């Protein structure tokens, strides 16, 4: 059973369409990055998934329960971390987590056990007795994650979980999310591409309210339009090298980048998504050339994201 099911979801604010008929599923145990530029519709989608906003069209199911008609059941199965983490400032971390547990109907020995476990999971031991107002941004974010998980939900929905953190804090939160992803289903929205690359096994990209890409990082970069590039460093006569490139099946062209100490560096371009490494290697061997380097250059998520969201070729 899919833990999150979205079908034909739309949301309008006056004449503005924030979310436009998007559909996707998230299976149990997936860590999914929900990417898009600012204003793409990420936060609106998150708020609909959590029952905070009603959809105008379409339907959402969380753990098999309808978000609109079975809202209370849905909330039992999710932990939600909004972008601006709502925390009481004048209370200690430990007492805040006890308070949240009580709201969730957890009391007695079970409450103590849950609070202690979540403090350990989120690495809050050094600050557990401190008031939240005294915490660094990183520990506040960890506290926000702790209250999100205090009731042990199956699904975590996080909106910009590393927003405003410094580089060290970002690394800490990413590692925590990856750790949580071993046991939970996680969907996190972000416009920080390195965050998605570091934590997510699957990526959804939304732009102007529409879903424009869905798949693993490798699948998305492979399917995006653009030059399929191979880097080749080779020793031999230039005329022979270039005659071999011209004869390559599937190649659309080549370019000499530089020549240094008898080694010629080339870019070889392929038609469609063909991988020419094997053909280049065979061709070089047959012609008696010496290859010193050969690889297919992978396109970065940043390049693909820019192409998809700006419509660049």
Brief rundown of the structure:
The protein is α/β, with parallel strands linked by helices. Helix content is 35%, strand content 31%.
Keywords:
alpha/beta, 4-stranded antiparallel beta sheet, single chain, elongated, Rossmann fold, Alpha-Beta Plaits, 31% strand, 313 residues, 6-stranded mixed beta sheet
Q: Could you list the spans in which at least 5 consecutive residues all have pLDDT below 50?
A: none
**Sheet with most strands:** 6 strands, mixed
Strand order of the largest sheet: 6-7-8-3-9-10
In helices, the fraction of residues equals: 25-40%
| Domain tally | 2
Proper CATH architecture of the largest domain: 3-Layer(aba) Sandwich
Total helical elements? 11
Q: What is the third-level CATH name, the topology of the largest domain?
A: Rossmann fold
Identify the CATH class of the largest domain: Alpha Beta
For the terminal residues, how far apart are their CA atoms? 38 Å
């Amino acid at each position: 059973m899919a833990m999150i099911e979205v079908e034909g979801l739309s949301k309008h604010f006056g004449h503005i369409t924030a979310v436009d008929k998007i559909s996707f599923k998230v299976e149990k145990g997936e860590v999914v990055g929900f990417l898009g530029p600012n204003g793409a519709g990420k936060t609106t989608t998150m708020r609909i998934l959590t029952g905070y906003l009603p959809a105008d069209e379409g339907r959402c199911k969380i753990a098999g329960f309808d978000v609109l008609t079975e809202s209370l059941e849905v909330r039992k199965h999710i932990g939600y971390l909004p972008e601006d983490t709502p925390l009481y400032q004048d209370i200690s971390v430990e007492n805040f987590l006890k308070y949240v547990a009580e709201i969730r109907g957890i009391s007695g020995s079970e409450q103590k056990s849950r609070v202690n476990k979540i403090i350990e999971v989120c690495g809050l031991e050094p600050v557990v007795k401190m008031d939240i107002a005294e915490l660094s941004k990183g520990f506040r974010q960890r506290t926000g994650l702790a209250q999100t998980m205090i009731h042990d939900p199956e699904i975590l929905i996080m909106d910009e979980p590393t927003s405003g953190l410094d580089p060290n804090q970002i690394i800490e939160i990413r590692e925590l999310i990856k750790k949580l992803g071993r046991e939970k289903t996680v969907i996190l929205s972000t416009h920080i591409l390195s965050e998605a690359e570091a934590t997510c096994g699957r990526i959804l990209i939304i732009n102007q309210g529409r879903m424009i890409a869905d798949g693993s990082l490798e699948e998305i970069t492979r399917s995006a339009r653009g030059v399929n590039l191979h880097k080749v460093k080779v020793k031999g006569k230039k005329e022979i090298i270039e005659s071999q490139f011209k004869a390559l099946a599937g190649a659309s062209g080549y370019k000499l980048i530089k020549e240094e100490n008898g080694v010629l560096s080339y870019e070889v371009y392929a038609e469609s998504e063909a991988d020419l490494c094997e053909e280049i290697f065979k061709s070089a061997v047959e012609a008696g050339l010496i290859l010193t380097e050969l690889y297919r250059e992978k396109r970065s998520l940043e390049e693909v994201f820019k192409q998809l969201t700006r419509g660049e070729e």
